[in-house]
Amino acid sequence: MKIDIVTLFPGMVEPALADSIVGRARARGLVDIRVHNLRDWAEGRHRVTDDTPFGGGGGMIMKPDPIARCLEAL
User: Is the domain 2-73 a CATH 3.60.20.10 member?
Assistant: First the structure.
């Protein structure tokens, strides 16, 4: 089974996968889990993946462009 995980924090996900039952399954070759950094598909010098809401208000939203490029590549 192949699983792709897309995250902004791959350094936090990898250790959790290595130290669990999933880590044992990976070591046995039962599952192929790949962790991808969404910023690899972002553009610009700072590789920003979020933006302010278009209608105003608090918080941030994810930009669709990096997500689309990531899904096309995977």
Answer: no
Domain boundaries, the chain: 2-73
Instruction: Give me the long-range contacts of 4-11 (CB less than 8 A, separation at least 24).
Output: 4/33, 4/34, 4/36, 4/74, 5/33, 5/34, 5/35, 5/36, 6/36, 6/38, 6/67, 6/70, 6/74, 7/35, 7/36, 7/37, 7/38, 8/37, 8/38, 8/39, 8/49, 10/35, 10/36, 10/37
Is pTM beyond 0.85? Reply is no
pLDDT tens digits, residue range 5-19? Answer: 999 999 999 999 988
